[in-house]
Amino acid sequence: MRDHWNFLASFLRRPLTVGAVAPSSPRLARTVIQECNLRTATTVVELGAGTGAITEQILAAIGPNTQVIALELDAGHAVRLIERFPRVTVCHASAEDLRAVLARLGCDEVDCVISGLPWASMGPRQQERIMAQVLAVLKPTGHFCGFGYVHAKWYGSTQSFHRRLRATFADVRISPVVWGNLPPAFAFSCPLSAPVSRK
Questions:
Q1: Range of the domain at 172
Q2: CA–CA distance from 49 to each of 60, 165, 172 (Å)?
Q3: Is residue 23 a contact partner of residue 133, using CB atoms and an 8 Å limit?
């Protein structure tokens, strides 16, 4: 319940960067990461970790030697993530600075990037900047995944993002709707198994 109040407060302060009124449900979080082979991953990055709903599921799925790095733009959330998940390297930073953040940590490529970002609230240019960062750090065998909300599926920004995914990844998998989430949502999963544009 405390996480819900913290998340709601963040939404009221910054609705365009938070994008929802409640944290992801455990079921949605599990759906987001279910196709990622986290058990054997060396490094996993979470973008927009929020209050840690997906972070918790990541930690339950990784192997004993997996490094987890979480980027969170909201300072209050970042502090609470540090307190709640001592195993995670939490960075108070924007996803647009992903490469620079990883460079400071001595990391140049990752196995999986898991997105909790509100893509529907972004313009095409910001989407392009973040996607360029993601593609620059993913291993050739890497995986990109995240989620979107059903009510925003037909937004122009959402359509733009999905066009970008289809143009970038050979395989874009969309899950059934998780109706128990608030609001209802679906997950997307994109294995980097074919040559892509790294513009």
A1: 2-191
A2: 15, 21, 22
A3: no
| pLDDT average, residue stretch 86-111 | 98
Query: How many other CB atoms are there within 10 angstroms of residue 83's CB atom?
Result: 9
Which residue type does 24 have?
S
Question: Phi first, then psi: what are they for 134, rounded to 5°?
Answer: -60, -50
For 111-148, how does the pLDDT look when each residue is reduced to its tens digit (9 = 90+)? 999 999 999 999 999 999 999 999 999 999 999 999 99
Structurally, how many domains does the chain consist of? 1
Query: Does residue 196 lie within any of the structural domains?
Result: no
Q: Alpha-carbon Rg of the chain, whole angstroms?
A: 15
Q: Which amino acid is at 140?
A: P
- Asked if 18 contacts 74 with a C-beta cutoff of 8 angstroms, the reply is yes
**Which residue bears the tokens 């910001």?**
126
> Coil, strand, or helix at residue 157?
helix
Amino acid identity at 40: T
Measured between alpha carbons, how far is residue 181 from residues 10, 23, 52, 83, 198 in Å?
18, 9, 15, 25, 33
